[in-house]
Write a structure and sequence with these properties.
Blueprint lengths: L3 E5 L4 H17 L2 E7 L3 H4 L3 H5 L2 H26 L3 E6 L4 H12 L3 E5 L5 H7 L2 H8 L4 E4 L1
Helix pairs in contact: 1-4, 5-7
Length: about 140
């Protein structure tokens, strides 16, 4: 059915549920996993006075350390289940675009990610990365809430 599953995570508790579901599915299907976390460009994440207090070099160090922690946790969980898992930190991208591009580049046949399930004005203002992935991905998407 699925041979290569991409699991997107930002390290949040909500994303952890998607990680657990994705790894369980991978184990059941004997599929390999690529865990992905995406870091927004510094210019999008830091602006105004924060740019002076948090220079680009510090931002890159902090995001790299955070990505290593997030992906290390997924890889450890995968190893405990006997699932093969690569970890990828996609830098300087917006989440949805980075997820879709990485899934395509690695030949993944399923994307697993979480969604906050926002509705109405909150969805309009904050957007939905899951909706964007769904709109732009050529592969199926499993959304965990």
């Amino acid at each position: 059915m699925y041979a290569h599953i991409l699991i997107a995570t930002d390290g949040s508790d909500l994303a952890q549920r998607a990680v657990e579901q994705g790894l369980a599915l991978a184990k059941a299907l004997n599929a390999k996993v690529t865990a992905v976390t995406v870091t927004e460009p510094w210019t999008a994440a830091v602006s105004g006075e924060w740019a002076v207090a948090f220079p680009v070099e510090e931002y890159e160090k902090a995001t790299a350390a955070n990505a290593e922690k997030i992906l290390g946790g997924v890889q450890a969980a995968a190893a405990s289940l006997g699932v093969t898992c690569d970890g990828v930190h996609v830098k300087d991208q917006y989440a949805a675009e980075g997820i879709v591009e990485e899934a395509k580049a690695r030949g993944c046949d399923l994307i697993v990610m979480a969604s906050h399930g926002r509705r109405g004005i909150a969805k309009f203002i904050l957007g939905s990365q899951a909706t964007r992935v769904l709109a732009h991905s050529a592969v199926p998407l499993l959304i965990c809430r």
